[in-house]
Amino acid sequence: MRRVAALLGAAVMVMGVGGNARAAGPDFADATTIGTHNAYDKAKYTYFAQALDSGASLLELDVYVNSLTHRWRVSHSNPLGNDNNCEAAKTPGELYSKARNQDLGSCLDNIAAWNQLHPDHPPIVFKVEMKVGFNAKGGLGPNEFDTLVSQKLGSSVYKPADLLGGTYPSLDAAAKANAWPSRDSLKGKFLFELIPGTVEQANPFDHYWTDQEYGDHLHDLYAAGKIAQAQAFPAVLGAANGDPRTSRYDASIRPWFVFFDGDAATYVNNGYDTAWYDTNHYFLIMTDAAGVSPAISSTNPTDAEVAARLALLASHDASVITSDWSAKSASVLSSVADRG
């Protein structure tokens, strides 16, 4: 275990170089950054474009499928309506001014318009929680999700096929070879992470969750020579020790999971072997970063506390740490530390 003094020194380094802990840009999998939980919440940002302005490297969207209206709704707890800060804006000039509470398609429109204003922004991960899962039979499955993202964002999405590079037979093989590009080369790019939702997980009649469904989707697309259609990376949800894929998925789809997502305190306090994620160049998202002992504010800690927490969880091999720190400045939320 690294000593506290080393962690504090790393914290000072992060704060002292204007939000980037190294002069040259690290590879995507060799950095630790900061994300914002539920960034679509109007209490956090008036408009989703402001969440994009925040400097955060990960922004979360909660999505419900509504097969009656054939819509992807964005909301925390209302499956029948939109409740979010995404606006009816499709051009840069319309941002920060239009009606909010729009569907996922409009959120993607906002992202596309914002991207025109900031074409050289650092890579941003969108963590999409499919609250009730997909509904492929109702026309809102993985294929339709891919189509929507592709239509709205096009080449600005870094996709599974980009990691494969026409060279590797699976995402696992590509990650282990550290085929990830540098952060600098991912300027102007977005990545999508998919996780199963809380409603889906609580449904006793649903045994085919988002992660498995999209994992099967990737496997099938690759087998059909159509992997370029896929727009997202499914994540293994929940902190675990060792490789959690072995107990959750069939052998055929395990190699299609290189994103992992779990509670920071569970990883750290239980002494889990997080070096395994870094060694294999997997993308590890640690949530509720404020809750790791010693706990700090989950909404507005000091800049020094954020820097120290970033350094601590970077030493535990996180790729992104998340919390509800939307009140912090872009200079803080855009901080980048060396992983491991």
Automatic annotation (TrEMBL):
Q: Identify the EC number(s).
A: 3.1.4.-
Classification via InterPro entries: PI-PLC-C1, PLC-like_Pdiesterase_TIM-brl
Q: Which UniProt keywords apply?
A: Hydrolase, Signal
Q: Which residues form the signal peptide?
A: 1-23
| One example GO MF annotation | hydrolase activity
Q: Can you tell which superkingdom this protein's organism belongs to?
A: Bacteria
The enzyme's main class, written as a single word, is hydrolase
Question: Which Gene3D superfamilies does the protein's record reference?
Answer: Phosphatidylinositol (PI) phosphodiesterase (3.20.20.190)
Name-wise, this protein is Phosphatidylinositol-specific phospholipase C domain-containing protein
Q: From what organism does this protein derive?
A: Streptomyces gibsoniae
